[in-house]
Amino acid sequence: MSLAASIARRAGRRALSSVPALFGVIVFTFLLMRVLPGDPAVFFASGPNAGQAEIQMIREQMGLDKPMPQQLLLYLRDIATGNLGRSMNTGQPVVADLINRLPASLELTFTALLLALSLALPLGILAALRPNSLVDHGVRFLCSLGVCVPTFVSGLLLIYAFYYILGIAPDPTGRLDVFASQPPVVTGFILIDAAIAGEWESWWAAASQLVLPASTMALFVLAPLARMTRAAMLAVMTSDFVRTGEALGLSRRRVVLVYALRNALLPVITIMGIVFSTMLGANVLVEKVFSWPGVASYALDALLTSDYAPVQGFVLLMAFIFVLVNLTIDVLYGLADPRVSIE
Amino acid sequence: MKLNRRHLLAGTAAVATAPYLGGRAEAQTRAETLRYVTGAAVNTLDPTMPGATREAFGVSVNVYDRLVSFGRKQRNGNWVFDIDTIRGEIAEKVDVSPDGMTFTFHIRKNAKFHDGTPVTAADVKWSYDRAVSARSLAAAQIGTGSWTKPEQFTIVDTHTVVGKIDKPDRLALPNLCTLYAIVFNSALVKKHVTPQDPWGQNWTKDNTAGSGAYTVESFKPGEQVILRRNDAWTGGVDGKPAPFRRIICQTIPEAATRASLIEKGDADLSIDLQPSDIDTLVARGRVKAISTPQFNAFSMIAFNTKMPPFDNKKVRQAIAAALPYDSLFKAGLFERGAKLYGGTWSGTPTDASFPQPMPYKQDVAKAKALLAEAGFPNGFETFFAFNLGSAAFAEPIAALVKEALAAINIRVEIQKLPDAQISTMVTERKLPFFIETSIAWLPSTDYFFRTFLYGPQRWNYSGWNDERIADLAGKARFETDKAKYDATCKEMIAIMAEETPIVMLWQPNQDAVMPKNIDGYTYGYHRQVDFRDVKRT
């Protein structure tokens, strides 16, 4: 059987087996939101003369006047038809909001992850090759620094230095300068859309907007990636096949980059999957500091106001992405180490 | 066309200069654009939608017109709205009958909606019918001005509408100046009505049908709204279009980022920076701040008069006497506001306006005595709550309250609650006492009492329902004689000072921060920016 067919079969099986988990997530979030203290209808009844009548009106509008089992059934029916409800915070359908915002979060997270990997892998390898040397300590220091400083502090610091003092970074407000022209939306990823449309000025504007928030995020996840690379490399470097390779007189570069690194990559890939999911959902602070119109800050705003539909939609989306990421990781495993089989 | 050398040269020159022309045009646009940054977001284009944010109000003020509007006046050198001068916006003239119960509005002949159709009496009638009948925020508000049913509005001719009320209500006309009494292009909205939605509310959420100074160029809920000037607009005082060609209202959640943007000159206006940052910003000299005490708002500590031991007047008075007002004012607000404590009167106030400084000051001995009288010589345990969203100013205040009350043996636990949770607990009257800031659109004494100190609505934070207030406020509302009105108001203020359902603290400043070349900013009843006033000099 060809590789592609095998991957497709695995993916299909994975997707099918994740249905019960997704269903569980839907029901659980639904119940959780309703158990949390705070009545959204009361919060949104914010008119200057809001009384009981208005609260009741909003309750009906949000469907909260019905008994809870009925609400759940209605919600499940809506999900089946691709309707995740309407957000009170933005006044838009949740699906539309998520479609608008997910590419923003993904674009930021991918860039940050790429940036982090391009730093973490060489640093981790260097540290592993010379354990307890000055280089190793330097890497350890950088990692600790990255992980110790909360993202909103490093974010604000970067803004202060590069925007406020030096004036080289564009103003840290969202994905594109407000005065720049927006490329026509194809994928939602501005870098890709601008490239498709050939609007290189917009591409450049979007890329420069990305640098600071992506660096902030990358700094924060540098530690797990670099440390994991170092640990895995240390283990592999003392193994038999590396010794054999060296004994056979293979070049140092070939031993390290081809034989050792490939074998050391498995745990790094695992951690990469976890880091990616965390970055996507948990980096609310980066999104807030840089006014990034992503899904995480959207979910946080909704949570604060007990706006049920967006929170439920967000959790469902995250669960879905988790399933996808796990699947991708499994496929990457197979590529990194043919011995691994997830059949 | 034949291509010869001359054409080619001209063409090359044009191509070569194009980027520069483009650049100049862009620079010009920047000068004619106002970039307004705020921490909150616009969530609807229809301000009457339940759940509409304050920023949504701000946008609608500039996009829609009302028949009438508030004028403005100078107050301590700053421009503020003036509820006592009412000017025409769509109406060129309002005739009020001698008994104060019939209002005849004459619509300007040249008033036009954004699509070019003229504003007619039918549009006004339809819009007002919508305001009082549709399930929206509007009905409850304009009901406070005795506007409750469609029959009150009649069309006389294409340009004349008459509104009638049963009793001379002081707030009838001011209510029509508020942003709920906007005039819709009824023909346009009617194209989008459905049997379930007879007033087209689903459509107006994302679309506009107004006649105001600006049209909506783009609307990204939660991110930004871009407004473009309506050059045909003549509803202003001078009949000229608004000064700025374009307005960008952008949501920037982080206050520090907003401050940097303004200081760097990349943004032009913000009204919600951290009070602690304003002085340093101004001291650095690149921006100016227009600080206006929000004279139609007040911060308070509200007691739940429905919950023991706060149902006991003496307990409330004891706490009012135990609070370290000056320290609270410094710690929470950096003294950026107007005090509502330390009033020098006792018994009956000398002034009928409200809010005004109430005669509360710190007196620990008196507090102890009052608490003993109330039957709590050894104090009691309770908790003090504040909204997570306002932690920046409420947290130091809570700590000081805890410390001050420990001195009279009241042991206080502090609770930080998220927005929705605290609103729910306030409405269900489950919090013993807490800090809140509230605002009245129509700053008239009887309105404050009707809204904040009597009745079942959420804004009556203390749940205080004194029959005397109901009686007096009801009377004051329809009182046309100024002297009698003032006397009634003073009586209500005296009762409140005695009963202490809430402790008034201060009126926080609204600090509008802008580069030095921005001028004309006016503090509005809605606490938003009326872009029609602002210009670059």
UniProtKB/TrEMBL annotation, chain A:
Domain ABC transmembrane type-1: start-end pairs: 102-333
Membrane topology: Multi-pass membrane protein
One GO CC term, this protein: plasma membrane
Gene3D superfamilies with a match to the protein in the record: MetI-like (1.10.3720.10)
Coiled coil: none
Leader peptide range in chain numbering: none
Compartments, as annotated in UniProt: Cell membrane
Principal subcellular localisation of the protein: membrane
Record field: transmembrane: 15-36, 108-129, 141-166, 203-223, 264-286, 314-336
This protein's record includes keyword Cell membrane: yes
Transport as UniProt keyword: yes
GO MF term list: dipeptide transmembrane transporter activity
InterPro entries, A to Z: BPD_transp_1_N (IPR045621), MetI-like (IPR000515), MetI-like_sf (IPR035906)
Keywords: Cell membrane, Membrane, Transmembrane, Transmembrane helix, Transport
PANTHER family: DIPEPTIDE TRANSPORT SYSTEM PERMEASE PROTEIN DPPB-RELATED
Family per record: Belongs to the binding-protein-dependent transport system permease family.
Protein name: Peptide ABC transporter permease
Automatic annotation (TrEMBL), chain B:
Keyword Chloroplast: no
Annotated ranges, domain Solute-binding protein family: 86-456
One Pfam family from the record: SBP_bac_5
One Gene Ontology term from the biological process aspect of the record: peptide transport
UniProt GO MF annotations: peptide transmembrane transporter activity
UniProtKB keywords: Signal, Transport
Entry GO CC: ATP-binding cassette (ABC) transporter complex; outer membrane-bounded periplasmic space
Entries under InterPro entries matching the protein: Peptide/Ni-bd, SBP_5, SBP_5_CS, SBP_5_dom, TAT_signal
Location relative to the cell: Periplasm
Family membership: Belongs to the bacterial solute-binding protein 5 family.
PANTHER family: PERIPLASMIC BINDING COMPONENT OF ABC TRANSPORTER (PTHR30290), PERIPLASMIC OLIGOPEPTIDE-BINDING PROTEIN-RELATED (PTHR30290:SF10)
This protein's name: ABC transporter substrate-binding protein
Species in which this protein is naturally found: Phreatobacter cathodiphilus
